Amino acid sequence: MNLFAGLDVSTQSCKLVIIDTKAGNVVFVASVNYDDDLPRYQTRNGAIQGLGEGVSESDPEMWLEAVNTVFSKAVDAQIPLDHVGCISVSGQQHGLVALDADGNLARARSKLWNDFSTLEECDILTEKVGGLANMITEVGNSQRTGYTAAKIFHMQRHEPEAYRRSTTLFLVHNYINWYLTGGVRVMEPGDSSGIALWHPKTRRWSDQVIQAIDPGLKDKLPEIKPSDQTIGGIAPKLVDQFGFDPQCRIDAGSGDNMYGAVGTGNVEPGIVTVSLGTSGTAYTFMEEAYIDPSGEIAAFCDSTGHHLPLLCVSNLANGYDDIIEQYSLTHDEFSEVIKLTEPGNGGRLLIPWYVGERTPDVPQAAPVYFGFGLGDFTREILCRAVLEGHVLSLHNGFEKMPVEVREIRLTGGLSRSDAWCQAIADIFEAETVPVEGEGAALGAALHAAWVWQNENQAPLSIRDVVQPFIILDEKRRKTPDKDALPGYRKQKQLFDALSKRIRGLDCDDPFRLRAEML
Predict the structure, then answer these.
(1) How do residues 314-327 score in pLDDT, each as one tens digit?
(2) pLDDT tens track for 79-106
(3) Looking at the predicted structure, is the pLDDT value of residue 1 above 80?
(4) Closest CA to 63 of 6, 15, 3, 129
(5) What are phi and psi of 16, to 5 degrees?
(6) Contact status, residue 94 vs residue 104, Cβ threshold 8 Å
(7) Is the pLDDT score of 185 beyond 80?
(8) d(Cα 381, Cα 323) in Å, to the nearest integer?
(9) Is the pLDDT of residue 278 over 80?
(10) Could you tell me the fold of the domain covering 317-399+482-517?
(11) Could you give the C-alpha distances from 373 to 378, 381, 406, 488, 490, in angstroms and in order?
């Protein structure tokens, strides 16, 4: 049993990574893009279209079909799946999957993390509990539309029959585990931190929030078991279909950010992972829980028994993807265009809230262009505004996180861009290096190897298992540009002031700050 598999069931695709711990390398990678490879589900960016403003949902059966497809690709590539000792699943966080007593979908679709239709439910729950401070005391987090509690409450309020039929409420990776094991019904601390019904520090369910939704809700929630253990063996039908060994175990799994940390070597203090994808996240390993009194920094457990405070912004790759499409630019051409303007963009600033924003919590947000004259909407100025706006937005939330940054490790599609790497180094004022490899899927495979070895061989630290597989792209390591730092420090103040001003909060005068910057 020298092979270990990681599945990443993300918003837009499903990826399988298989590693060989004896050889110390990745032996197989396969992926399925839902839009392109599973067209019968009619998704765009992994979500069903035409469901209404702010609604983002998918068919959970699409994810199972994707899992079977990547397993079939491994069989076609003659990967000896009977040598796989353990499988672990990384899942997009916060999605809600409802099953009935027979294991069928009680609700045909799953609300995803980027569904903003539950704002009213968040407000009602917060009011019922007695306000934001009381909610954070109860669950360690605020109620956000991204989190799962409001999705459950939304179903209970608007689809009572589906809610009544539901006997099990899963997160995405728990649902995939249920499929892989043939019916094991459990959760684990990492992904469960984002349900907003369970406190990641006290590790207890909040009876008060559960009662605010439905006194019978607790019976629908699976038991939470440790993240560093396996939960069961592989289902016999998968043994028959794909040739897995019957002794293959299924790891507890976790959320994509927890496994993104493992897959970037973020398993010790001082390292920060910044994931540049559909959303943008920044997170770090901590021994103890950090509870943000504002609720903007998510209090999550990690997948190793420790903690992973996390910042998430909903808008990141969307603005970038749109502007390179608008001007028909490649990633390299975008980096060249950026060189035509100076850091700080001459006082022009973009608040890039193209869709509802999670941090800060502005579900009905819209973008704001500040300091632009009539002749300033050019390709060069807009490209820099998009780049700096997204990085400033991410940094503005990150400033609350109590961490002394030793190194930022980048993952996700935009980490391949030199312009993004340098902007992050400059604005975060830290050395920044992209991590090669498969991110959360690799992290899942490494976690599977760690758990299996600890259960079957001599115990190892997660760092010992992870380190041989972490490949840093040293040629593209960036250090902060000292000449750019003074301007960016003033620009960070400007972004913070403008963000607060448009939300009606006390702040410095953005016009004065812009004048000082110029």
Answers:
(1) 898 888 999 999 99
(2) 999 999 999 999 999 999 999 999 999 9
(3) no
(4) 15
(5) -120, 130
(6) no
(7) yes
(8) 11
(9) no
(10) Nucleotidyltransferase; domain 5 (3.30.420)
(11) 11, 11, 39, 21, 20
Q: pLDDT grade, residue 27 (50/70/90)?
A: very high
Q: Is the peptide bond before 360 cis (omega within 30 degrees of 0)?
A: yes
Q: Which residues contact 55 (CB under 8 A, 6 or more apart)?
A: 111, 115, 116, 117
Q: Look at residue 351 in the predicted model and tell me its pLDDT.
A: 97
- pLDDT value at 410 more than 90: yes
- Superfamily, domain 3-258+438-472: ATPase, nucleotide binding domain (3.30.420.40)
Q: Which residues contact 398 (CB under 8 A, 6 or more apart)?
A: 282, 311, 428
Distances 368 to 204, 341, 351 between C-alpha atoms, Å: 41, 20, 5
3-state secondary structure (DSSP) of residue 232: strand
The DSSP letter of residue 478 is B
Domains 3-258+438-472 and 317-399+482-517 share a fold: yes
394 CB burial (10 A radius; 0-12, 13-18, 19+): buried
Place of tokens 């262009």: 369
Residue 58 structure tokens: 């998918």
Q: What is the pTM of this model?
A: 0.90
DSSP annotation of 295 reads S
Concatenate the DSSP letters of all residues of 47-74 into one string.
Answer: EESSS-TT--EE-HHHHHHHHHHHHHHH
pLDDT tens profile 210-235: 999 999 999 999 999 999 999 999 99
List, in order, residues 6 or more apart from 193 with CB less than 8 Å away.
140, 141, 200, 298, 299, 300, 301
Q: Which of residues 62 and 414 earns the better pLDDT score?
A: 62
Q: Which amino acid is at 350?
A: L
Closest CA to 189 of 141, 223, 212: 223
Average pLDDT, the chain: 95
Query: Taking the domains of the chain in order of start, what are their residue ranges?
Result: 3-258+438-472, 317-399+482-517
